[in-house]
Design brief:
Blueprint: E1 15-25, E2 28-34, E3 45-50, E4 66-74, E5 77-82, H1 87-94, E6 100-107, E7 118-124, H2 129-137, E8 142-147, H3 150-153, E9 163-166, E10 173-174, H4 177-187, E11 191-196, H5 199-212, E12 216-219, E13 235-238, E14 241-244, H6 245-248, E15 251-253
Parallel strand pairs: 7-8, 7-11, 8-9, 9-10, 11-12
Antiparallel strand pairs: 1-2, 1-6, 2-5, 3-4, 3-6, 4-5, 12-15, 13-14
Helix pairs in contact: 4-5
Amino acid sequence: MSATARRTLAPPQRRRATVVERLAYGAYVVLRVEDAGPPPRPGQFAMLAAVQRWGGGEGERPFLPRAFSVMRWRDGVADFLLEDVGPGTKRLCELAAGEELWLLGPLGVGFDLERAGRPLLVGGGVGIAPLAILADELPESTVLLGFRDGAHAEGAALLPGARVATDDGSVGHAGLVTDLLAQELDADPAAQVYACGPPAMLEAVRALCAAREVPAQLALESGMACGFGACFGCVVPTREGYVRLCVDGPVLDAADLEAVA
């Protein structure tokens, strides 16, 4: 499927969206948001910013919007998975039902769901978000999730039936999620891998799949200032040159990458 077919075009302006529910899953927050935009494709993202108190204080420069994968979208309600890791994400995590945020999306190129092979979904940390909407489209998938510890592993409840690994061994397999991936590929290499997570995890997924000649699609993470290709802040190197993740990704074929930095 072409990149154009894997992209739902966003309306050309940001829109106000109301939070309808805030849910906590251990170290994570899920915001359920009314969304009047078009349904996204799995792997696409949106730029989010709180409508009120979006900045360091009176007279200070506001924070840039943050890019978040759409975790689910049903009947005009979008779900986003957040973790408080700094002042911008902290403000978003504080939002409660009835408060508003600015939403621009869906943006980017999503996963190609028409590839042959047994679907293997591999996620780490907040990178589990686009796998939830993907698993809804590919219900026969095997899902492998990795987390730092038990508090973060509570996020696995968002993808029922997933196999879990934790760095500290408090939940599931003691070790890396790529240990589980290697087991799956050794048992049955006829797979199509879809992955999202931190760079070190994605590089391990890329290397495992390359060594076994297993096709993989990686949803890369990068700091994005605009979301529509104007700032060139999210460029990454590929075998054919640099691309902008916000318009040429965030989903890229692993075979197009020398490595995930």
